[in-house]
Amino acid sequence: MIVVDTSVWIAHLRDVATEPVRKLRALGDLASLLVGDLILLEVLQGARSPADAMNLEREMRQFEIVSMLSPDLAVEAAANYRLLRSRGVTPRKTADLIIGTFCIEHGHTLLHDDRDFEPMRTHLGLQVL
Predict the structure, then answer these.
(1) Which of 8, 112, 125, 129 is exposed most, by the fewest CB atoms within 10 A?
(2) pTM
(3) How confident is the model at residue 30 (pLDDT cuts 50, 70, 90)?
């Protein structure tokens, strides 16, 4: 399965032609996409109005939406944070740490346009598209 990060959804919705957006649009099997609840939250936070939020939610709900955090995953994300910090990288956003750890633990690939995921790829084995 492929998890598409907020950074890609926002660029896609704004019709910004980035490489990750091109990859998203080139995917043939949209049934292989997962939307994490944290990603849904971040996308909906950017809505300009309640009507815009309703439309965005309707668009996002065409994909499977999953919960990204559990007690076990919280423990694993904290361990990943400490490991990254011990290697000289301090993750800036807890949400990105959760998203990356979720993908690692479940064997999902992440499509992103956010430099904060690169240390997770390098040091933790995060699979990226």
Answers:
(1) 125
(2) 0.89
(3) confident
Residue 57: CB atoms within 10 Å: 14
* Residue showing tokens 């959804």: 9
Tell me, letter by letter, the H, E, C secondary structure of the chain. Answer: CEEECHHHHHHHHCCCCCHHHHHHHHCCCHHHEEEEHHHHHHHHHCCCCHHHHHHHHHHHCCCEEECCCCHHHHHHHHHHHHHHHHCCCCCCCHHHHHHHHHHHHHCCEEECCCHHHHHHHHHHCCEEC
> Residue 53: which pLDDT band, with cuts at 50, 70 and 90?
very high
What pLDDT sits at residue 111? Answer: 95
Class of domain 2-128: alpha beta
